[in-house]
């Protein structure tokens, strides 16, 4: 398999020193010294993994749309490509957008079908109404931090052999944070709720929200299994426990925030 030169610029940030174990094989997850070898000034050849004998990262010659489709299909190789072999500096921006999206849905009562919590004021003062959006944002920031914290805590307790440093040199907490944000991308499916909320029933919206949350949980289990290098069953137990404890503490946080409405 060969890679043409025009795509080489996409990997300018992935240059490495010879022999450095900076990347991972997307098939088996083991560190590799590189992803490709330059044959000539115009031709690159993908390196095979020494362990599984497969191309270390086939996605470096794929279009971005194909990678996104595999992400939607919860492909472990696609997750490894994004988390370990690509630059993830802009993932925090995606996380901020998703938190604001959820906060807006919550503020506009789009989640009313599955929760009784609200931060909307009954007064017509626009400033008091806007305050509810900020409280909703605090609500979801707290929820994200609680979920990440409890996943990390339960992973350390139930799966003690987590890697201190991942293949690309980043620490495990850093990579787990990127993984939680990447798993949250499925929450963009909340956008149809905003668009068609007036033409949907409460039951239909509730089903839509539950399906999106189920997809988020499954994505998080897959990514946790990739980052922590453990089985899906153990990742499922850790993620579900984290969700349960997070829901308990977030209810307490919501009670405090509702006092400001």
Structural class call reads mainly alpha
Number of helical segments?
Answer: 8
Number of strands: 5
Number of domains: 2
How much beta, percentage-wise?
Answer: 5-15%
Radius of gyration: 21 Å
Distance between the termini: 60 Å
Order of helices and strands: EEEEEHHHHHHHH
Keywords summarizing the entry:
three-stranded antiparallel sheet; elongated; transmembrane helix; transmembrane; disordered N terminus; two-stranded antiparallel ribbon; mainly alpha; lipid metabolism; membrane; 261 residues; Protein ARV; 2 domains
Description:
It comes from Anopheles gambiae. This is Protein ARV. It is found in: Endoplasmic reticulum membrane. Belongs to the ARV1 family. Pfam families: Arv1 (PF04161). By secondary structure, the chain is mainly α. The protein folds into 2 domains: 5-61, no CATH class; 84-260, no CATH class. The chain is 54% helix and 5% strand. The chain has 8 helices and 5 strands; from the N terminus they run E-E-E-E-E-H-H-H-H-H-H-H-H. It has helices at residues 64-72, 76-84, 91-107, 126-158, 172-183, 191-196, 202-228, 232-258, and strands at residues 2-4, 23-24, 31-32, 36-38, 43-46. The strands form 2 sheets. It has a 3-stranded antiparallel β-sheet with strand order 1-5-4, with no helix packed on it. Helix 1 (64-72) crosses helix 2 and helix 4 (126-158) runs antiparallel to helix 8 (232-258). The longest helix is centred in the middle third of the chain and has 33 residues, at 126-158. The protein is elongated, with a radius of gyration of 21 Å. The chain starts with a strand and ends with a helix. Mean pLDDT is 81; it is low at 1-19.
């Amino acid at each position: 398999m060969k890679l043409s030169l025009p795509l080489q610029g996409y990997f300018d940030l992935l240059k490495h020193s010879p022999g450095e174990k900076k990347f991972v094989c997307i098939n088996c997850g083991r560190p590799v010294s590189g992803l490709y070898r330059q044959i000539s000034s115009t031709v690159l050849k993908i390196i095979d993994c020494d362990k599984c004998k497969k191309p270390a990262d086939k996605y470096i010659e794929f279009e971005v749309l194909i990678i996104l489709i595999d992400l939607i299909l919860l492909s472990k190789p696609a997750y490894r490509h994004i988390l370990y072999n690509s630059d993830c500096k802009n993932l925090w921006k995606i996380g901020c957008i998703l938190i604001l999206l959820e906060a807006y849905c919550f503020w506009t009562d789009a989640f009313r079908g599955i929760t009784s919590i609200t931060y909307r004021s009954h007064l017509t003062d626009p400033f008091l109404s806007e305050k509810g959006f900020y409280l909703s944002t605090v609500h979801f920031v707290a929820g994200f931090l609680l979920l990440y914290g409890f996943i990390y805590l339960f992973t350390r307790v139930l799966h003690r052999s987590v890697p201190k440093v991942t293949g690309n040199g980043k620490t495990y907490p850093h990579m787990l944070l990127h993984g939680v944000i990447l798993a949250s991308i499925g929450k963009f499916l909340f956008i149809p709720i905003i668009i068609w909320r007036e033409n949907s029933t409460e039951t239909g919206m509730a089903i839509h929200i539950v399906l999106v949350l189920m997809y988020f949980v499954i994505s998080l289990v897959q990514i946790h299994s990739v980052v922590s290098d453990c089985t899906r069953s153990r990742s499922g137990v850790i993620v579900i426990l984290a969700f349960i404890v997070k829901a308990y503490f977030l209810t307490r946080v919501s009670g405090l925030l509702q006092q400001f409405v």
